[in-house]
Amino acid sequence: MKIYVSNLGFGVTDADLSTFFTEYGEVVSAKVIMDRETGRSRGFAFVEMSDEEAGKSAIRGLNNKDIDGRTISVSVAKDKSQLGTSSFSGGNSSFKKKW
Question: What string of DSSP letters covers 9-56?
Answer without folding.
Answer: -TT--HHHHHHHHHTTS-EEEEEEEE-TTT--EEEEEEEEESSHHHHH
